[in-house]
C-alpha cells in the first residue's frame, strides 16, 4: 500500500446524503465498504437546484448542482465532514439523436480533507422519453411503453407542441385512472397534452439502477490510490489524442494515452491505451 494510504480510511463515519428521493436505498450498501454510514437529513429541498418534473430548471452543470446539494446538506448537518449527492442529465444521444442518453453523476466531498471524488454512469440504459398526446389512449399507451406504473409519468400542458408546465402540471400519477383524468383535463383546455417519463429517482427504478452503478464507480475511484502519497481518486484526468494510423502511421484523433494525476501531490502517470494503432477509416490523412 502506498505511503499515507491508511490515513484516508474511514471507520464507521457518518456521511450525509443530499436527497429527498430515497437514493440512500441503493447508495448506502455500496458505500459501506468504505467505512461510511450514509444518513439523510429531514427538511432538505434538493429540487430547488432543478427538478425533473420541470417545475424548476437546473442552472449550470450537473457537477455544480451536486456541489450545491452537498452544501445544503452540510448546512443541515454541520458536524459532519463527508457529504454525498447525485445528479442526472438526460437528452438525445450525441451520436445517434433518435436514441435517449443518460448521464448520472455521484459526488463525494470530504470538506475536512479537501477531497472530492466522483463516479459516473453514462449510456442509453434509460426510459427517458416524451409524447405529445391528443387522446387519452395515446397517453396510456406511451405510459405502458416506458414501464408505468412501476415507472412514473408526468403530464403537463403544451403550447405549440412544446411542454408548458407553467400552465398546468400533474405529478405523482400512480394509476392509469389518475393519468387518464389528468390528460382528459388537459385536453379540455388544449389540443394536446405533453406526457413524459418521471425521472425522479424514487419514481424511476431504471434511473435508480444507474445511480447504483455510478456509486460503484465512485467506490472504484476511491480505491484507485496515488502510488506516491496514497490519496484516493487517482483517476484519468486527461485523454491524450494521437494514436497512430495502422496504414500510414500518422497521428489520428483517437486517444493514444490516458493521464492519471493526483490532485494532492501532483504525481502523474501517462498510460498508453491497449490498441496499438487506429483504424484508417478514422485517419484524416487516409480518409480526409
Secondary-structure element pattern, one letter each: EHEHEEEEHEEEHEHEEE
The biggest beta sheet reads: 5 strands, mixed
Number of individual domains: 3
- Strand adjacency order, main sheet: 2-1-3-4-5
Q: What fraction of residues sit in β-strands? A: 25-35%
Features:
single chain; 288 residues; alpha+beta; Maf protein; Dna Ligase, domain 1; 3 domains; 5-stranded mixed β-sheet; 5-stranded antiparallel β-sheet; 13 strands
3D architecture notes:
This protein is of the alpha+beta class and 288 residues long. It folds into three domains: 5-126 and 202-231, Maf protein; 130-198, 2-Layer Sandwich (Dna Ligase, domain 1), CATH 3.30.1490.20; 236-282, no CATH class. The protein contains five helices and 13 strands. Strands 2-1-3-4-5 form a five-stranded mixed sheet, with helices on both faces. Strands 6, 7, 8, 9 and 10 form a five-stranded antiparallel sheet that branches. Helix 1 (24-31) links the parallel strand 1 and strand 2. The chain is flat, with a radius of gyration of 23 Å. 35% of the residues are buried. The model has no long low-confidence stretch (mean pLDDT 93).
Amino acid at each position: 500500500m502506498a505511503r499515507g494510504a491508511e490515513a484516508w480510511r474511514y471507520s464507521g463515519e457518518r456521511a450525509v446524503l443530499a436527497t429527498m428521493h430515497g437514493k440512500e436505498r441503493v447508495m448506502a450498501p455500496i458505500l459501506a465498504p468504505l467505512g461510511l454510514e450514509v444518513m439523510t437529513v429531514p427538511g432538505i429541498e434538493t429540487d430547488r437546484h432543478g427538478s425533473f418534473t420541470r417545475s424548476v430548471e437546473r442552472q449550470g452543470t450537473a457537477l455544480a448542482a451536486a456541489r450545491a446539494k452537498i452544501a445544503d446538506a452540510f448546512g443541515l448537518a454541520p458536524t459532519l465532514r463527508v457529504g454525498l449527492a447525485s445528479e442526472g442529465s438526460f437528452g438525445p444521444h450525441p451520436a445517434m439523436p433518435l436514441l435517449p442518453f443518460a448521464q448520472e453523476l455521484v459526488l463525494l466531498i470530504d470538506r475536512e480533507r479537501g477531497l472530492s471524488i466522483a463516479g459516473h454512469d453514462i449510456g442509453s440504459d434509460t426510459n427517458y422519453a416524451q409524447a405529445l398526446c391528443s387522446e387519452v389512449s395515446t397517453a396510456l399507451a406511451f405510459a405502458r411503453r416506458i414501464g408505468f406504473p412501476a415507472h412514473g409519468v408526468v403530464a403537463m400542458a403544451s403550447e405549440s407542441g412544446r411542454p408548458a408546465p407553467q400552465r398546468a402540471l400533474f405529478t405523482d400519477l400512480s394509476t392509469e385512472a389518475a393519468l387518464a383524468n389528468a390528460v382528459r383535463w388537459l385536453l379540455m383546455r388544449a389540443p394536446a397534452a405533453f406526457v413524459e417519463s418521471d425521472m425522479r429517482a424514487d419514481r424511476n427504478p431504471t434511473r435508480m439502477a444507474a445511480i447504483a452503478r455510478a456509486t460503484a464507480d465512485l467506490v472504484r475511484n476511491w480505491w484507485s490510490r496515488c502510488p506516491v502519497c496514497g490519496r484516493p481518486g487517482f483517476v484519468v484526468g486527461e485523454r491524450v489524442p494521437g494514436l497512430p494510423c495502422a496504414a500510414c502511421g500518422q497521428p489520428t484523433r483517437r486517444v493514444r494515452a490516458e493521464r492519471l494525476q493526483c490532485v494532492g501531490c501532483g504525481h502523474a502517470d501517462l498510460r498508453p491505451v491497449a490498441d496499438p494503432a487506429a483504424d484508417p477509416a478514422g485517419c484524416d490523412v487516409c480518409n480526409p
